[in-house]
Amino acid sequence: MTTQNTVHDGALLQMSGIVKEFPGVRALGGVDLDVRAGEVHCLLGQNGAGKSTLIKVLSASYQPDDGTIEWEGEYVSLTTPVAAMKLGISTIYQELDLVPDLTVAENIYLGHELSKGGFTQRAAAASNTRAIMERLGHPEIAPSRTVGSLSPAGQQIVSMARALSHDTKLLILDEPSAVLDQGEVHNLFRVIRGLTDEGVAIIYISHRLEEIREIGDRITVLKDGRTVATGLDAKVTPTKELIQLMTGRSIEYVFPPRPDTPRDRGEAVLEVRDLALAGVFSGVDLTVHAGEIVGLAGLVGAGRSEIIETVYGARKATGGTVTVDGTKISRGSVVAAVKAGVGLAPEERKSQGLLLDQAVYRNITISSLSRFSRSGFLDSADERRRSDELVTSLDVRPKGVSRAVRTLSGGNQQKVVLARWLLRDCRVLLLDEPTRGVDVGARSEIYNLIRRLADSGVAVVVVSSEVEEVLGLADRVLVVREGAVVHDAPATELDESKVLDLVMEGRVA
Amino acid sequence: MTDTAGVSPSASQPEPTSDSKSVEEAAARAGQQQGGLALLRTSAGRNLGLVLALVLVCIAGFVTSGSQFANLDNALTILRLASVIGVVSIGMTFVIIGGGIDLSVGAIVALASVWCTTLATQRMAEDTHWTMMVFSALAVGLGCGLVNGLLISYGGVVPFIATLAMLAAARGYAEILAQRRTQLVSVSEFLDFFRIDVLGVPMLVLIFVVVSAIGWVVLNRTTFGRRTLAVGGNPEAARLAGINIKRHTVMLYALLGLCCGIAALMITARTTTGASTHGLLYELDAIAAVVIGGTLLSGGRGTIVGTVLGVLIFGVLNNVFVQNDLSSSAQAVAKGVIIVAAVLLQQRFARQSSSSP
Ligand SMILES: Nc1ncnc2c1ncn2[C@@H]1O[C@H](COP(=O)(O)OP(=O)(O)OP(=O)(O)O)[C@@H](O)[C@H]1O
Ligand SMILES: [Mg+2]
């Protein structure tokens, strides 16, 4: 399981001049990357820069069109994912790839089942799984649980365990922290440090610079499919320089200013009273006024997503009422909620948001079709025009609205989901992790858009695992813990440590 | 589907609708270069494979039967026969794109044809107007489709089971109604209408053409079509986008039921009889035509043009076999081979256009 790495002076991995083309897109145009044993090597770059593509080349999901890969000083050609795995390269993809109906142990040993004479060795698999979980600091995840019943963070741990069930020398993590809250991220870092101490190299991809500062050793920056800088020191390279390298411009990574006078609040638009969903949360009261941004902070699994999904009618409330502009919305009816002017940008973009095979513009307009139709007939030229405007303002790359959403990078897909609800004139906008996987530049753009929407009179609710984001963006913050709202205060009266205390309190007590 | 008076708005704003195709192509060509082109190429590539298959089948017909195959009369015969199953296939395309399946189409055709030819209906038609027969067949088709849709959407019965039940029940009821006898059509205006040729095109073929054209417009140019793609492609995303997926699903099955009603009229007119044996195995033929036409059985993707080509391929194939006095068992075997070959061919084209720049 663990690897005694023969001490290498040189690089464990050296990729040179890697080129990968998709129809119409040169995703990688000559990328160099070198990784040493025992280091955490961070890959930085804007959405669509080619990070995921590069690691898919490394894990042999894609075949490069050009370039060489050296592994422990020898040229190798990685033809199949199994070949890469045999060398000791394990990957945790941006989009989790587990089988939800199989158990934890079955998922971990999928494809390399422990067997004797054709019979699976279930007891051995279970005990090995338990050992790996122990090592990852999650002994509470039982080998016999079905993966679908785990939280996203739990599933992430299973992915990790799967990678570690191989003889791993290089572990690749593509935006692992996107589904994790701060506590989970710290746990992840603890695991990573344990691995690097054993000589395992890590390639770490994240859009959160503070994480890279904390865990990273060296940084390689990609821009438009090329390496623009490599071997940067992760601890001391100034943020300004990194952003300049990534985006080619300098961005003040700031939130839009709040309306400074404690605003003359508009009328209450969304009123939630005593809302409950059996077994998940209860007694939730929430009032959002026109022009106000309310943030929901809390741990992953505290019930924040469930709360806004229930407000939206996607889950059927077991108690309480939701009113929009004074009209009560019938429980469990998305159609009624949408009719009343409520919009939800869901958390899981792939399963809940996107029509992967459809063009970008069709994904954007699907919730506002009536606006583009006359007695049922669509004006697709107009659809494209409006989508194009949004795509431009959100900086979705590549820019065309006709390409299938499947071919966009993760962060750009997120922007498309967001664009759908920005296009619809909502009275109430519910945003679940709106900037997950979105790069630094586009983030400030999204924050500005959300603020502008609020200024135009929309009531906005934002769920985010990043405390900084909730505090920076929202006017008022609700802290959710274990299915109940434990605190409600203006954002200006809170700071990060206060929120964290509130969030964690339940665990300590 | 019959209330196509709704087409007029498209005529009243010709700019976006008639130009949107060229806009689409222009955008694909100029703006986002190969990105749009790749999309274009995949669906075109799929259909190209089908055209190729159609040409091959035609060549086979010509080689084996010469001018007996390649003459106008025979061509019209092929088309007339293919039209009936074609209308059903168009409706089936929508249901399958929407993520469903319907096994009861043949049984609905039988029931509708029997219903509109019972003595009672025919007498009523003679007393009032021959279109009474048309209305009753359409109503029966629509009604059966509605029942299917309601069971599936609101009853939570999986499509396979719900429509399997309808298959058994509708065919059984048709037998009871007809007392297993073949019912002759005596309303001459009814038969006359379906015998009209418009500029040499038989009425049955015309109906298929019109239904296909409407199907194409609905799928590609209306909110209904767009929603169908969404509901089949990712039901959860469609639901969260605010689409009433239950109601939409009911409409899809009702629409297919209506198509079955139309097909029932066509076959009743063609054979001048109503019988509970009409439409046997239509479900298989329709599903086969739709699937080789490039529609994903799992939903979310498909084209009307592909379905029409699929229908034509099977139509010509049947004809070639009949001309050569081959048994229907041999036909069945050949059909199986064709389905596999067509699907393999499509995949080849699809892969080529998505992997090479
Ligand atoms: N299967 C595909 N077909 C066509 N183009 C693709 C495909 N996969 C990726 N691309 C394109 O390749 C480029 C690089 O994408 P990649 O997913 O590597 O970006 P990324 O750096 O991981 O971005 P993010 O931070 O958003 O995850 C993008 O322009 C993307 O649209
Ligand atoms: Mg990525």
UniProtKB/TrEMBL annotation, chain B:
Residues 1-26 are annotated as: Disordered. Keywords: Cell membrane, Membrane, Transmembrane, Transmembrane helix. One of its GO terms (molecular function) is transmembrane transporter activity. Residues 1-20 have a biased composition (Polar residues). It is found in: Cell membrane. Signal peptide: none annotated. The keyword Cell membrane applies. InterPro entries: ABC_transp_permease. Its main location: membrane. One of its GO terms (cellular component) is plasma membrane. The chain crosses the membrane at residues 48-66, 133-154, 198-219, 250-268, 280-297. It is a multi-pass membrane protein. Pfam families: BPD_transp_2. This is ABC transporter permease. It comes from Nocardioides iriomotensis.
